[in-house]
Amino acid sequence: TVIRHRQDDDQRSSRYDELLSAETRAAKNAKGVHSRKDAPTHRISEVSGDASKAKQFLPSLQRAGRISGIVEFVASGSRLRVYLPKETCLITLLLAGIECPRMQSTGNQGHMITGEPYGEEAYNFTREHCLQKDVEIEVSACDRVGNFIGWLFIDDLNLSLSLVKEGLSGVHFSAEKSPFYSQLIMAEESAKTSKIKIWANFEETKTVEVVDDTSERQCKYEKVVITEVEGPQCFWVQHADSGTEIEQMMERLRTNLADNPPVPGSFTPRRGELCAALFTDNNWYRARVLKTSGPKEITVLYIDFGNIEVLPISKIRALPRDFASMKPQAVEYNLALVREPNDEEMKYDLNAVFKNKILNNMFLLNKEYKINNQEFVTLTNPESKEDIGRALIAEGLALVDKRNEKRFQKMVKDYLGAQDTAKKNRLNMWRYGDITEDDAKEFGYPTK
């Protein structure tokens, strides 16, 4: 309809009379808003988040091939909400074939999920190219929570391929099944060679796995105390029999620094250098400089305990020579035959329970195997005889990391039995069903 103006209103259109005439004709012919019929009801089906409904839609979307749509919302570099006019439905689309860096976000329990480098840049790239624009999509699959996985095209430009070319994403192994695999690999190799974005610090590495031909599993338990825990794939221990020696060494260090106070500004910490660091308990400990965190801040690793802290440079001292010769007393290990879920919230729950179970407690440690000089071990409670790795799997918090060596087959079978029981009872990560179909990064096809 036309906005009414007074005759002397200078805001009135120069074609005001023509507009009024057009409105009169439309009203006379009962067109549009002047119709005496009720406005048609547009029913849009919300498919996202409903796994059963998504599975019903999937076959028809797969048969349709390329489908026209409009991007309504961009959640991250590879997650979008797309409206499909012909199908009158709204879906969440995860870009297939790529691993896009994660953006910082807030989890369901309010904890902050840390973002990955270039996650924000990937989001901005996708938003700039897609938001509120006409696109075409090809749906390949759907995940366990009702999100569709597929390819998105803007003027025949493959968005997955564009993100890889820009160095804002890597190629996911599931892309091998797609017709775009060779293009994606070539784009990734080009980005790696140019060292752009996520590949800026990329160095080609070769995985060297030490294979022990021993047919029988060897058990040589060592008593250890857990001093620091990040998760099953990174925790630090002290050997129980070295506790007295460590205490005596630290006491001598504190006495030495008290008797020989350094001159302020006489020590400039360098990356990788040993130093003395003043912990929050106001005691000095041996540490290694990891990096400079700011103009006057240093990140250090306490080499006898494994914890990391950011300290003002005023709390860093040169380590007296007599205390540099003793090897670090905290040793880093990984939990054998245990795999973390890829879901960040599930991983958060796993790490919290694992830390609560083992931190500052004594366990029997057994070295199982080594990959790239990283030791993988099992931890057993000396009193209850509980295998910590198996317990995490039995509680539905972790997955089994299978090994092919003959000596591990009995353990693997036992662990898989515990995993199946947790799955049947829908414990923790299994509460919504089987996650193993798509327990890879969310941005690929489901694994088989």
UniProtKB/TrEMBL annotation:
Gene Ontology CC terms, in alphabetical order: cytosol; nucleus
Record GO terms (molecular function): nuclease activity; RNA binding
Positions of transmembrane segments: none
Example of a GO biological process term: mRNA catabolic process
Ranges of compositional bias, category Basic and acidic residues: 35-45
Region (Disordered): 27-48
The protein, known as: Staphylococcal nuclease domain-containing protein 1
Natural source organism: Paramuricea clavata
